[in-house]
Design a protein that fits this description.
With about 575 residues, the protein is α+β, with helices and mostly antiparallel strands. It has 12 helices and 24 strands. α3 packs across α12 and α7 runs antiparallel to α12. The longest helix has 18 residues. It is elongated.
């Protein structure tokens, strides 16, 4: 059986549908069992509902430390597409090892990407994702709330009509802020002065906890699921109320705490991709300051990545601070990609999968983030038409009347954004997976790549000089980014010689080789100006020498926490 057929036989359909937890576990376990030489499967922790936080490690000799990529998805419960794309990347990495000629990765990049270690966490919030898959209820990250609520009334999501879903609930009310779209009555729109009615109050399908029989609380997107995992990471963390969804302290949640510990144990990470939905955009650093504060080399590298990713996926790349803050110039706190970039020294960015706005023809606003608040009546008509014509009406199911135990006459249903808004329809999913995987594996080819060569020269009878030629033939420097050079674990390369017992070495056995530049300069770097073409010189190479007395086989290794270690041996003759 060919590698292609074997992978197809093991595939649980994640490129064509969204997997529940059981199917996701089956997929990971099948790969780990069938390809133990390429796949290591471990659980980073167990969630409060008893689900494992699975991490796949992929690559030849997965136990061997070397430059590594981290990919995660589905940290926000409703954003299921991230799991599918992460699994597609994992499968394509396996294909690259099992049958390189069948890979869509360009031939020149295949050996580079094969040398990289991949850590793939397809579902960071399995409890939350399962709630969304099984019940359609809104969960931001995790379906739990440990706040001390007291007796304050709040909304709790619940299936009220027995159809297995917890969607929306509308109650006719003269003071309501919502009305039916005049051209697409299945869609509700903010009320205008000209609307004739009826008017509605909109609530989550569910009930009011601590209801006093009169006062209806205003629902909040974290009404019954407090922490947002993407506000719970340690870099620039800020507590409530400064940052909504922050959690009790950085890493307070099982899921985020497990990721933090795993990242700290892996200083060799150089690229971190965090998959979200939706929008069709890549969001890069800085998240807390304008681009003029971004180091020149880092900006040039992101400019190069932007060029590739836009070409391969059609998505633009934007600055987190300049185009993706909810309030202009008000930074978000506790973000995962900020943690990965600032504290772990990675090329780190977010991908908001699924370009819904482009698909339905909504013009791009000045700030990309304003897409989410600029969907007026014309745009909602486009969405309703697209849903009817291309999505089987999944987004706008009919309203069903109920007698609510607290509010009386109401209707439930109306809006199911899981497949068509929050995530692409399953019919589109294969193309999303293929494009994102190709873009990700191209960026993975930027890895620093330390190589080692040894020579020996006779100086006198019984005395030789051993020379270790250390080179970085990769795109990135051994410290990865300019902003990461001074991180405590971003230490220079050291070379060590290991002689046989009968051989004597005059110098220190372990000697510094320093940091080495890569050959890449990013895109638009001033160093690569066409009108004054120059190179840096031998900044990607360093030579370490030892004087040895005696003969035998010497072993030399060179490495650092960021690059891992490589070694070579040489026979030294008298």
């Amino acid at each position: 059986m060919s590698a292609h057929d074997e992978l197809s036989e093991l595939n649980q359909g994640f490129r064509e549908k969204y997997l529940d937890y059981a199917a996701l576990c089956t997929q990971l376990e099948l790969w780990a069992k069938r390809f133990p030489e390429l796949v290591k499967l471990e659980s980073l922790a167990t969630t409060p509902e008893g689900r494992e936080l699975w991490l796949l490690t992929l690559g030849g000799r997965p136990e061997c430390t070397r430059p590594a990529v981290w990919i995660d998805g589905n940290m926000h419960a409703s954003e299921l597409c991230g799991s599918s794309v992460a699994l597609a990347i994992a499968e394509d990495v396996l294909r690259l090892h099992l049958d390189p000629d069948s890979s869509a990765v360009p031939a020149a990049l295949r050996p580079i990407v094969r040398d990289v270690l991949f850590h793939v966490m397809p579902r960071m919030s399995p409890d939350g994702a399962e709630a969304v898959v099984q019940s359609a209820r809104w969960v931001r990250s995790v379906p739990r709330d440990e706040r001390m609520q007291g007796g304050s009334p709040r909304w709790v999501a619940e299936d009220m009509n027995g159809d297995g879903r917890a969607l929306l609930m509308r109650v006719e009310d003269a003071t309501g802020e919502w009305a039916c779209h005049p051209q697409a009555p299945q869609a509700l729109v903010p009320r205008s002065l000209e609307d004739p009615g009826p008017f509605y109050k909109l609530y989550p399908e569910g009930r009011i906890e601590h209801f006093d029989g009169e006062r209806v609380p205003a629902p909040h997107f974290l009404s019954d699921n407090f922490p947002d995992l993407n506000r719970n990471f340690p870099w620039s963390w800020a507590p409530e109320p400064e940052q909504v969804g922050a959690g009790m302290f950085p890493g307070s949640e099982v899921e985020s705490g497990a990721v933090i510990r795993a990242a700290i144990a892996r200083p060799n990470l150089y690229f971190w991709l965090n998959f979200h939905t939706f929008g069709g955009v890549f969001i890069r650093p800085l998240g807390n300051a304008p681009d003029k504060k971004l180091p020149d080399f880092d900006r040039a590298v992101f400019r190069q990545i932007e060029s590739w990713c836009s070409e391969l996926t059609g998505y633009p790349m934007v600055s987190g601070f300049e185009e993706f803050t909810y309030e202009e110039e008000k930074a978000l706190h506790g973000d995962l990609s900020d943690f990965a970039y600032h504290q772990r020294g990675c090329i780190a960015y977010v991908c908001e999968l699924w370009d819904l706005f482009a698909r339905i023809g909504v013009p791009r606003p000045k700030r990309f983030c304003d897409y989410y608040t600029s969907m007026g009546r014309e745009e909602l008509k486009l969405l309703a038409d697209w849903d009817r014509q291309h999505n089987g009406g999944r987004v706008f199911p009919p309203w069903s009347p109920i007698e609510h135990p607290q509010l009386g006459r109401a209707e439930v249903g109306g809006f199911d954004p899981r497949f068509g808004v929050w995530n692409p329809p399953s019919e589109i999913l294969p193309g999303v997976c293929a494009a994102q995987s190709l873009a990700t594996l191209r960026v993975a080819a930027l890895a620093p790549r330390v190589q080692l060569g040894l020579t020996a020269e006779t100086l006198a009878p019984g005395v030789s000089r051993v020379r270790a030629i250390v080179e970085n033939v990769g795109y990135l420097p051994t410290y990865v980014l300019e902003s990461a050079r001074d991180l405590p674990f971003s230490v220079p390369l050291f070379a060590g010689i290991h002689p046989p017992s009968a051989m004597r070495v005059s110098e220190s056995l372990r000697r510094e080789a320093g940091h080495l530049d890569g050959w890449g300069r990013g895109l638009g770097s001033r160093e690569m100006a066409f009108h004054v073409p120059r190179s840096r010189g031998s900044t990607a190479r360093h030579v370490v020498e030892w004087t040895v007395t005696g003969s035998g086989t010497v072993v030399v290794d060179v490495g650092s926490p960021r690059t891992g270690s490589v070694s070579a041996s040489l026979e030294v003759s008298v």
